[in-house]
């Protein structure tokens, strides 16, 4: 078993545990979180190489924080856009599927990008093949791949590239 990738994954899972536990920082809760996060991290590291290339450093951590802020902003913007569609007198949508190319090189970066796209209201990542995603868009404004790539991934990709390489 390789130990590469266990610590970053454990740290992420433990942070999720703390967030889910709310204000409860009781020793028993923290101990359970440490143990559970470590167990999951070891199990995942045994069967997946996706966390192997993750390197922790302040620059990458700051990039993840900026990504999180951009992600929250884009979620709010997308929800407001969908709200406008819902309350519009006439529903004028142009749904479609478009290929989008990414410059992210690592599997974890691509996973984060596809998850981000799927979690953003109005878009859904359907398929990933190499550097190309197929994205279902609720209101497709362009059929040009480069333009769609900039519109869909432009806010996220630079931050994910700095965080995951």
UniProtKB/TrEMBL annotation:
Its main location: membrane. GO terms for molecular function: monoatomic cation transmembrane transporter activity. InterPro entries: Cation_antiport_E. The keyword Transcription regulation does not apply. It is found in: Cell membrane. GO terms for cellular component: plasma membrane. Pfam families: MNHE (PF01899). Signal peptide: none annotated. It is a multi-pass membrane protein. Keywords: Cell membrane, Membrane, Transmembrane, Transmembrane helix. It comes from the Bacteria. Belongs to the CPA3 antiporters (TC 2.A.63) subunit E family. This is Multicomponent Na+:H+ antiporter subunit E. The lineage of its organism: Bacteria, Pseudomonadati, Pseudomonadota, Alphaproteobacteria, Hyphomicrobiales.
